């Protein structure tokens, strides 16, 4: 016995000694086994970067969502008085089917057919991205019926708060499963795809040691690697102007059901794209309306532009001193070698002046004008205006179009917009030279890219000139001539006349190439109707290009009807929103804002008040570090002037302020101001005179004049009913 037990002791001692020396059992490292058992880690989810407009209003961002998990393993309830796994499969499936888009039998099959030993299952896309309200209702019903084993795991989903809003520009992102079954958000289209790398955040993690029950051991330290949120992409898009675009397009789509539509709005002085949309379009949240076309038409598609091209032929003629508005030509037809081109009505208008020819959009007039310029010289101008090459916008897959220059007939048809192809962006860029006194501005849509983790600006795009194809004097003359296409009784653009602002531009009725075979489509309404316009014409603040393809016109209607119903409300509403003084208010006296930066706030506030302005000091006083509007800006009496100083801000009375002024206040003060609605301020959550910091949320309520009028009428009606009832 002594020998047996002694032998066993030495064997056991040797085994223990071996384990201590090698750290292995059966070839497996004990340290790794212990680490797997006791070392835990959890993921700290990073936010995908936000896409915001020029005023920091969200266009795409991450929001809280939930996905549903069914725990199937009985081991989850081991040693517990309560069940933590699914017990009643049938009843559980019945409840889940009410809240997620899966049939009851499908849910039941997923649970019953799970592999033996499976701890838990999910329900694919149907069980993901659930709203909090849905989860609360589902959880309440499960609890009420005593059903167990259903968990709701918190996560993130991509949120597009504006619905159908610049959808082909912004695109969309959606969750995809990796090989290790991890769900990640991936950009699939538009800016979401182009800037996917910048938008994608990097998850963090927490490592810690726990006991066998999962509790953190008190003697260990947690190792935290914080998440890094994706970059914020700030666009030049203005949410308010984009909404004007979407509303106008929706109305025309409903009334005329065109095959396609497109609108681009830009600031011709900077090249900033303020709005961009097309039809058909889609909702990026649901992808409803998304067709086989995934292209941003303003950037990736080319068209034959038609008559808006004539404004550049006109500009070339004026610059070359070949334009004589009072000279005559015979309209109707023009022969070049064996080819005859005709005016839109086939017969022309007899012998007319070149000015009338432009107003009537005569193709023959362009042919005679081309004789004066010289067709090769004309093509040089076309290239100087940026056609035939990419504008270089910060968006992918930009097309460049083709300028036909092989034969005299091709150069002739290019003069009135047929044959050669362009992109809508090229039209916007070229027209900026006319609107901006000869200086052509490169279009761009990304304002800044910001790292939200450090608030560091990684990219800061600035206005960039792309050439000077004409002089300032020529640009002014061309604008004056273009204005007559709207004001003249012979002008094709009479329907673009606005009551408050002078508009200039050029209409277009372009033939559409057949999809199969040579030639062009024919028949009533089978054209691409367009208008490239700017306003106010003496100093254009906005440039808008609208195209409407194959609308269903009623008898007696023309292509300018649907196009003007898009262009007019966008231009009128946008200019008012930008506080551009209407023509009929031009007699109202205005004063220039002084340069207040660097001066004492109290002193300049008194000076600004004497000049008829309403000064608002942001901060506690002292030297003015920044001001809005900038020095030299013309303002009417009682206009708000914001003066930024250091220290805490005392809230003013925002009543009656425009959204733009509130946004300027938010920018200078860096306060957490949240804006609800459009129009003018009718209420604020924090009373005037309160000292606030960046941590205090302030809600500002806005209403449009129409909404305020309707509210007033409703209140009056209610009071009248009370009186009559009494």
Automatic annotation (TrEMBL):
<dbReference type="GO" id="GO:0008658">
    <property type="term" value="F:penicillin binding"/>
</dbReference>
<feature type="compositionally biased region" description="Basic and acidic residues">
    <location>
        <begin position="704"/>
        <end position="716"/>
    </location>
</feature>
<feature type="compositionally biased region" description="Acidic residues">
    <location>
        <begin position="717"/>
        <end position="726"/>
    </location>
</feature>
<comment type="similarity">
    <text>Belongs to the transpeptidase family.</text>
</comment>
<feature type="domain" description="PASTA">
    <location>
        <begin position="587"/>
        <end position="647"/>
    </location>
</feature>
<dbReference type="InterPro" id="IPR036138">
    <property type="entry name" value="PBP_dimer_sf"/>
</dbReference>
<protein>
    <submittedName>
        <fullName>Penicillin-binding protein 2B</fullName>
    </submittedName>
</protein>
<dbReference type="InterPro" id="IPR001460">
    <property type="entry name" value="PCN-bd_Tpept"/>
</dbReference>
<dbReference type="InterPro" id="IPR012338">
    <property type="entry name" value="Beta-lactam/transpept-like"/>
</dbReference>
<dbReference type="Pfam" id="PF03717">
    <property type="entry name" value="PBP_dimer"/>
</dbReference>
<keyword id="KW-0472">Membrane</keyword>
<dbReference type="Pfam" id="PF00905">
    <property type="entry name" value="Transpeptidase"/>
</dbReference>
<dbReference type="InterPro" id="IPR050515">
    <property type="entry name" value="Beta-lactam/transpept"/>
</dbReference>
<dbReference type="Pfam" id="PF03793">
    <property type="entry name" value="PASTA"/>
</dbReference>
<feature type="domain" description="PASTA">
    <location>
        <begin position="648"/>
        <end position="704"/>
    </location>
</feature>
<feature type="region of interest" description="Disordered">
    <location>
        <begin position="704"/>
        <end position="726"/>
    </location>
</feature>
<dbReference type="InterPro" id="IPR005543">
    <property type="entry name" value="PASTA_dom"/>
</dbReference>
<dbReference type="GO" id="GO:0071555">
    <property type="term" value="P:cell wall organization"/>
</dbReference>
<dbReference type="GO" id="GO:0005886">
    <property type="term" value="C:plasma membrane"/>
</dbReference>
<dbReference type="InterPro" id="IPR005311">
    <property type="entry name" value="PBP_dimer"/>
</dbReference>
